[in-house]
Amino acid sequence: MSLKRCVALPPDEFRASVFGHRYLHTRAADLAGDFTDLFSPQALEELVSGGLRTSSLRLVRDGVERDVTQGCIPESGDAPGTAPFPDTDGIRHALAAGQTLIVRSLHRFHPPIRRFAQELAAEMGHPVKVNAFVTPPGSQGVDLHFDVQDVLVLQIAGDKRWLLRTPPLPDPLSAHAWFDVPARRREEMRAASRPLADLVLRAGDSLYLPRGTMHSPMARETLSIHLTVAVSTITRHDLLTELVRRAVDDDWMRVGVDTDGLVADSELARDLFKEAGERLAALAADAAPEEVLWSLRRSAFREQTPEPVPILPMPDGLRPQGVHRLRAGVYFHTASVKDDVQLSVGNRRVRLPAAVSPFLAALHRDQVADMAGLTAALGEDNARKVAAALVDIGLLLPPSAAPWHAAAAQEAVLPNGAPRRESDPDDS
């Protein structure tokens, strides 16, 4: 399990007493292993020189960003505005000059971290993003600040000093992003925080920071590489936003308002506010929880990309090997519609015979693609058609027929539709 490898506490205890409440420094000696299977200096070299575009890279020192495209040669044939391939000479010189290199969105394209992020998102119930930070000795990318995501720092190589201060604002949202607020407000929040800890992360250590925790990281005598695992917590504000979005179907909500008149008559404005709140409360009371929560999760996890699918067709004449399996990282929802069942995967929908319901329920409950049960319920021909539809909508992966279609370790989903394997913030 991804969480278990990052903290020494049992996952349930971490979620109940640490997550969102207090920082936690876990030393390598208290963990089962390090994190070099996720990322390493060698992986960094291969990614930067192996086809990554500069849109996934940043260079920053003391809060000032440097143009990472400087010295890059555009590729002929690229569309105008396409990010170029990085200039490794330029990046090497930037690191030598004290710049911190940030490799963004590793959860999108680096397979070990993609699987890790999918697992952790399933365990935490919130989306996960992962960036890598490479900081030269004695340098600092960004001074004291906070992130609007909960953060797990995984130290890969070297060591880094972290000065922590208390959150000046409890549970900040994206609207409170540190670098988006005025400089005067940032100074006020710095002054409002109090010293919390002064610690050093060494290779194999981890550090959990609740969102809003002020932190100032700085590399020491050696080059430091760490992963920042950002957990974007789904909040009550997100739920309210979803309910407001649904209010577009209320005729009363769509009527225009005379703002000049409301400014002139505060009592009229208060009455309007009150009625709007009452109508929203009535909508919430009548809404189907499962539909609201599915829409909320679908929006929250839209950037949590699932396992890639094979892009090549199965070669003619080859017999499929293995069985259909659930696609890792997929989020789905089912609802009864008259005599059918409607399956939603992301923004795609398909209506299937009601007899498919037990099969889909097993995916939630038992994390198993029971193809034998599906065949028994529908017959071989219809089961084959349904399986093809489930592959087409992105819920299942087809049997493998060639090495490039080889399946990874068996993976599944939690009962609530979040992904899980059966085995085992942007400026930190």
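(ticket continues) Second input and output from the same batch:
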Amino acid sequence: MTKCDQCDKPAIIKHESGQHLCVTCFSTLQNAMFLQQSMDVQRLSMLASQMNYQVDKIESVSGLPGSLPRYKVPEQPPIFTGDMNNISINKSVVGSVNTGTIESINLSMNKISNLGNEDLSHEIKIFTEAVLASEELNQEQKNDIVEQVAFVGEESAKPPQEQKNAIMGAAIKSVKETVLTVNALSTLWDKVAGYIL
């Protein structure tokens, strides 16, 4: 069976570039292409708006309002809609969390799964989604927790001899202290920490 050119998983598709890709790498490529398309639409929207503004200025100087055609401004598709590979995010929290941090957690989860620790990967997913959906935490707390989970995930994806155990231990303790008042989150975090410690 052909292996992915980016990792050692079995390839499921041959991309038009000639590279063989697994499900995870193909999904990452698709996400990148979607983001590029969204940026292109945003650029077109900005240009159309600028052209319409110039047409408005011409009409106001000439004294003939509404006489010239306008460019239709393309609707901006949502930059992110729902699922970043592993972690499902409600659209209402997309603007308030750093999606780069979420993607970092996703990449770590993939590495952790590839190392054979799918249970830890699954518990990180459940905990992160619960934090993002929590109404008992404010936005700053959510962002702090997600950043620390990203760090813990990155370290957990490394070989044991390369992990920064003291810093990782401090991050685990900090998350525990932050979620201590939210029983459901505290229980979920204990499960994550149980796989790491």
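Agent notes: Residues 23-62 form the longest helix (40 residues). Helices lie at 23-62, 99-114, 118-133, 139-156, 165-179, 183-196. Closing as not reproducible unless the customer responds.
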